[in-house]
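In this supplementary section we document a worked example of the pipeline. Step one takes a protein sequence of length 472 as its only input; no multiple sequence alignment statistics are reported here. Step two produces a three-dimensional model, which step three serialises into structure tokens for compact storage. The input and output of this example are shown verbatim.
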Amino acid sequence: MNHCRKLTSLLISSLLLIGLSACGTSSGSSGSSSSEGSAGKSGSSSGKTSASKESFSFDGTISETVIADEDEFKITALSLDKTDKGWLELKIKLENKSDHELTFGTSHEDGLYHAVNGYSGFMINTGFNEKVEAGDSMETEITLSPDELELCGIQKIAEMDLGFEVYENYSDRNLIQYNLKTAASDYDYSGESIQNTLQDPDFIKSRNNWNVDYFSNQIDFDAADMKVLSAAVVTEKETQHLYIEVENRSDDVRYFRFDSLGINGLVYGGGGESVQVPPGKKGICDTKLKLPKFNDNVKITGLDEIRTLNIGSFIVEEDYNTKLGSGTFEIKLSDKEPDISWTAAGNTNQTARPPVEIECIGIYDDDSSGTPSPSFMLAVTNKSGQILNADIEYENAEINFQPAFLITTDAEFIPDGATALISGTCIDMGDKPMPAATADEITDIVVNVLLYPLDENGMEQDPWYCMTTIYK
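The serialised model returned by step three reads:
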């Protein structure tokens, strides 16, 4: 789709809220609420100590280790310590041996990655980006959360994979990937898994105000050598988290990019957290779930609780843009079927009739930018028998018979039978000024809705055009 619509992320945040911490030939199917967790390997013949269901133990200290020593710079891992607040800090010394300023940082770009015991993702909370003057040095740190390490089944840190970049000019960076061993490097972590912890009653009991609402390790998603191993919805206090565990079975660094989220068959906005996964390793996406909120003039019922989730994801190369595959899967949190309904805002007429139904469900003034702007929301119900993406053509629109330029929101991975929400907001664009009308004064809206069928790899095919007229 046209890159201009990506500007819409700012708009949609004012309409639909999802809190964030962030695909294949099969359209996927629901993973039933299975209690079959993979126990992993309980040991090996290597003579290493092995993982069992115990809490995190901090005995993976490190000796001072030189990570990189080049003509212009040096990076040294000094220590791995536990802070008074219970966090883990990996102390790093940065030395600039050049005659010019250098920038040192942790990086997830150009094939660099971070992982703990073969798990990448959210447990490495903060890295650094520091400028060091010529001939100077400084100390900084990378922090890790023991709670999140423990959630992933990690009981001791045996090794850490760390990616660093050093540069004077960003276009000419030095890239360093380093595997840092700890004093517990003989610990066999092959049996560690988030699946173990989410099926361990003692672990769940140890977490105050915790409940596992859904768990399955039978998710039907395997795309571009990236497989979803398990998915879980966990309530922590009053916040629901969606955890997706993936494994990269390719020889290259790849991203699991969570692009689309549907709640109770209603697809809207973007997805959740993405995760970079090194070859042969696992990763965890952690996304906070919130029921969507809408402008007061948009009346939708059936969203009082989350009954189903529809997840749409791309697998992309390390550049984060080149798509390799995609897929969808569904999570059912309730035996009750979703029951979504809405109130129409005026009459909607489609001059062309592809296998979808389009209805306007809201005309309102969006004031998220500080200036009220005429806006509308459409419900697009997919009846095509395949997965679709939907968008609104931002240039060829009319409001009250006057040309209008729109900022639009799109929807991706709309399953057959699901409904997606897309919207448009008028902006002042030179020869297409803002319509001199409030939402109450709008009588007619004419837009082109673009519907993109997806091929087996999740790539958009030529769109169907559907001219849509809304009138009150």
